[in-house]
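Notes from hallway chat w/ T.B., transcribed later so I don't forget. T.B. wanted the structure written out for a chain they're using in a teaching module, and asked if we could keep both sequence and structure tokens in one place. Agreed to drop them here.
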Amino acid sequence: MIDTPSVDWFALSPSLATLGAAAICLLSEAFVPRWILRPFAAFFCALGFIAGGALAILLYIETPHGSLEVADAIFRDRYAAFTQILVMGAGLLTVGVSYSARMREDHIGEYYALLVTAGAGMAFLVQSANLMTLFLGLEWFSVCLYILCAIEIDLVGSLEAGLKYLIIGGMGSAVLLFGSALVYGATGELGYSAIADATRAQDLAGDPILLVGLAMLLAGLAFKSSAAPFHMWTPDVYEGAPTPITGFMAAATKTVALVLMYRVLTVAFPEERDVWTIAVAVLAVISLAWGNIAALVQANVKRLLAYSSISHAGFMLIAVSAANELGVRALLYYLIPYSAISVGAFAVVAARERELGEPVTLDNLAGFGWERPLLGFSMATFMLGFAGFPLTGGFMGKFLVFSSASEAGWNWLVIVGVLATLVSLYYYLAVIRSMYMRPAAELGLAPIGGSPPREIMLSSAAFLAMAVNVGSFFAVQPLVDFARSAAETLPL
């Protein structure tokens, strides 16, 4: 008789709910009439994200103390539930942005099925408690994103983006898997806590095999979080992929990669803290420098936002390198406005793309703020949030990140972050200038075909993202308390 482990289905419920929605979306491709397929698939995709988010909230409420479940393979704790809420929120906004996208009729069901399946994989990944479930969750959502990047074959650059992401993402996964093998070879353990216990019991601190394995694990997660110098796929993939998917990747993929990185480093490798804090700080500096300097010369808005994403990975890595209680609270808080801003900014880019039928540049953004007041104002708040201006969540996010670094004694890292913020003002404000201070007449353009198309779903998603961006500034204390409660399970 096989001794099977007990399964806490409630702990797995966010992933299961989204998988159920994915199954309905996939079946709709075969059984639902074409005239109603798009609203049907979009509705159940959104319903899956709503159900997953609601179940994650219930998990957060009902799990004041963390525990290991399913043969110690996953964590059931508030840290994972907090991240699942962010992922589900980003997914729901992405459904709104995607609804009016021009896509091939025979891909609609698969598109929404893959989108919600990617959300399920991310929800599972942040619960991983050992190196096997980590790799399973990582590949689960990565395969979905590889396909989503290339799904719109009529879009110039989509197939190229999917291929580049597949090759470089596969290499990152291989590096992470090899690193996991080295860690297992050094310690004989797969569980994060068991790795830390074995390191102490066998006095493996400083062991070369363990350190190389740790470095490769860190590199693999840096690939997923778009941290430099592991960022090489980001600009091309962000530019070529369908814009709603780009926004989802910028928000959700970075969220789960950084949250998982914090858990793995603090739970599995506390004995190597002196090593990995320095390594992460170096990654943060490289990301800040590379992302901001490269963004200065970008004319294509999607590439500009891609390099912006790299620089924000640097800001969030500052919180990881701090490795203190304030650092993890700063990271979790930062991810709230950042996720909303990322999806919202790419939503505005998507609206302009559909209006012009060509890639969005700083030049053809001219007059957009006056033509589409809601989207233009939303984009302005997103750029100010990215830059860290007051009255946006980005300001408080950076303030908390810098505070955590200062508390850890990394004052030089604070200086680097402040300098990077000053540099970023040039290109963030350039987007606002293009929308409001360069009228279309300056380029000799004439409006054709009347007013732009009304996109209620996309506009609603952009408005909600703007509300989160601004609201997180005024609700900073409740959100920090929310993050503090989530972070209590980490051994800091």
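Follow-up for T.B.: Residues 167 and 233 are 9 Å apart (CA to CA). Might be a good example for the class.
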